[in-house]
Amino acid sequence: MSRESVPVSPVLALAVAVLAVSTSAILVRFSDAPSSVKAFYRVLFTLALVAPLAATRSRAGVARLSRRDLLGAGVAGVALALHFGAWFESLEWTSVAASVTLVQAQPVFVAVGAAFLLDERVTGRAVAGILVALAGMALMAGADLLGAATTGARPLYGNALAVGAAVMTAVYVLAGRSIRRRVPLLPYVTVVYGVCTFVLLAVVVASAGADALWPYPPREWLLFVAMAAGPGLFGHTVVNWALGHVESSVVSVSLLAEPVGSTLLALALLAEVPGALTVLGGVVVLCGIGVTAAERR
What we know:
This protein is mostly helical and 297 residues long.
């Protein structure tokens, strides 16, 4: 892990990133555009913010990436597009609390994927954390089946989409993990965001037609930019930077604050009160994720 002197405290940067990503679900809910369109413009505007920095500040540059690294970044970009598409759609059908909690389960799926695909050892505590997280997910699903979920038109469907989005995040992490050890942050995310943008554009055109891309009132464009600048640039891009300066387990556990922040914002700004079983299941999921993430150093 890099310990060189940096101009910004990594802990402070991580705190800002967690606050930024906590606004993501709220911004998505505020927008009236189709889910795929929101996802497309979020990534497009994030790419527009990151690409100039990559061109001016990174000497290695995208052009110097090997074919293997470009292929890996491309796979990560496709996975990220599927993640955004599934998660944004999830927020249309279930509560912010359930969606954001379930999508944060990616450390669980990273641990499972690394064990089966990369033959990595999984400790007993990590296995226990995975089982606890899965139990929490089952509890949240049970709340939906029993009609105890108080928000969302189709909570079970929305929760399933959130879990799918978490799986895609795990694919994104596993695809990019070895590349990030060799490639600087900005060239890597430029390729990933570029591929992600192209895939989401294809999804929008195929599902809703090119006419769905415009026109939108100024309020919608401001929300698209806010999604890119807040959760995109100051959120996930800063998280990627922080991974070079603090332990990955610290980053993973810190991100567990996102569901709490998003739920409180949804309560204050959307008057959205999750059901008791949803909250209980969410707490169980977060405990399982925390144990799993802490074991994967």
